[in-house]
Amino acid sequence: MSERVVLAYSGGLDTSVAIPYLAEQTGGEVIAVAVDVGQGGEDLDTIRKRALACGAAEAVVVDAKEEFAADFCVPAMQANALYMDRYPLVSALSRPLIVKHLVSAAKEFGGTTVSHGCTGKGNDQVRFEAGLSALNPDLKVIAPARDFAWTRDKAIAFAEEKGLPIDVSAKSPYSIDQNLWGRAVETGFLEDIWNGPIEDVYDYTADPAEPREADEVVITFASGVPVALDGRQLTPYQVVAELNRRAGAQGVGRIDMVEDRLVGIKSREVYEAPAAIALMAAHMELENVTVERDLARFKRSVDQRWGELVYDGLWFSPLKESLDAFIADAQKHVSGDVRLTLHGGRAVVTGRRSAASLYSYDLATYDTGDTFDQSLAKGFVELWSLPSKIAAKRERDLEG
């Protein structure tokens, strides 16, 4: 049997042209793998037929929206994962899922090589290849845009030469990657970091400055997993999809930032992540209510490291796996309801309740019924302050 190359296939110009190009370069057959992670656009059957029309020996299409929501988006929310305290890992989350299905296809069809469309300047090349190394280190990798300086102009010329059934005329001024968890936009006039984004950059969110009625939503969590909206039981995918619509209609989730890429450069990125931002706002507040103080403090450092590992393409690393276990254990009491007001580009918590709450009204109140014994406070403060008091006395004695 000839060599088989498993291609991460999107259905667009670059990966469609890659099918005959890779066949020529390797002398082998190409297996196209398209994974639906909620990016929208064409249906899977159309994408599959195009891959075959472009010369693929086999075309695998996977509806992974539910899997992506439950196994990737929910863990990111439980980790309150915001790279550089702002970016909710939109693209970084989808790459290990795609890698998982590429490796599965390679096993099924006898593939020896995997190909992706990443350039040498981006993070995604690392995410794909680090994931492949973890799941099947024997697979070789070809990245035409990086390894063969494959440009869009070359792709268009090759498509016309081969008479491929794809539209080569439309060209967005931006580079866009989107999925269920959000949308990433870069390049074009955005590369001048003084230029403000204009409204045509956005698609998932409405202009937050436009006047409209606020939207109130109650999100129900069970052990850190969102399970209902306004009392309606939903899957994680359904929760994210509905919050993308409702929070997006209120302009929630717009992010404009200069980001530290893994490859060592800074890049200006514009993101939209309405559901991700709304869910994390609710989840963080429910953790405030249900997670003990020292555990919550330590978890914040774990959350940051978890987000950095995922951003850096180390989803399948031993450290990430161990942090997953810690985060999962920390979620066992994160159950209850959080009420959010969505309006003017913000998701604001206005109410919270939980059967596992550590908040005690009787201890917190300053009114009649207060059960907090203030007589204990004086001795506590004296003991708490004692190390600082002793150190201060030492400094005075040494100076004197």
TrEMBL record:
Annotated L-citrulline binding sites: Y87, N123, R127, S175, E259, Y271
Major site of localization recorded for this protein: cytoplasm
Annotated ATP binding sites: A8, Y9, S10, G11, G12, L13, D14, T15, S16, G117
PROSITE patterns: ARGININOSUCCIN_SYN_1 (PS00564), ARGININOSUCCIN_SYN_2 (PS00565)
CDD domains, A to Z: ASS
Catalysed reaction equations from the record: L-citrulline + L-aspartate + ATP = 2-(N(omega)-L-arginino)succinate + AMP + diphosphate + H(+)
Domain Arginosuccinate synthase-like N-terminal: 4-165
Molecular function as annotated in GO: argininosuccinate synthase activity
Chain ranges of the Arginosuccinate synthase C-terminal domain: 174-390
Matching InterPro entries: Arginosuc_syn_C, Arginosuc_syn_N, Arginosuc_synth, Arginosuc_synth_CS, Arginosuc_synth_type_1_subfam, AS_cat/multimer_dom_body, Rossmann-like_a/b/a_fold
Keyword Nucleotide-binding among record annotations: yes
Gene3D superfamilies per UniProt: Argininosuccinate synthetase, chain A, domain 2, HUPs, Single helix bin
Record's keyword terms, sorted: Amino-acid biosynthesis, Arginine biosynthesis, ATP-binding, Cytoplasm, Ligase, Nucleotide-binding
Functional pathway: Amino-acid biosynthesis; L-arginine biosynthesis; L-arginine from L-ornithine and carbamoyl phosphate: step 2/3
Binding site for L-aspartate: T119, N123, D124
Cellular localisation: Cytoplasm
Assigned EC number: 6.3.4.5
Coiled coil residues, start to end: none
Subunit structure, as described in the record: Homotetramer.
Family per similarity comment: Belongs to the argininosuccinate synthase family. Type 1 subfamily.
Name by which UniProt lists this protein: Argininosuccinate synthase
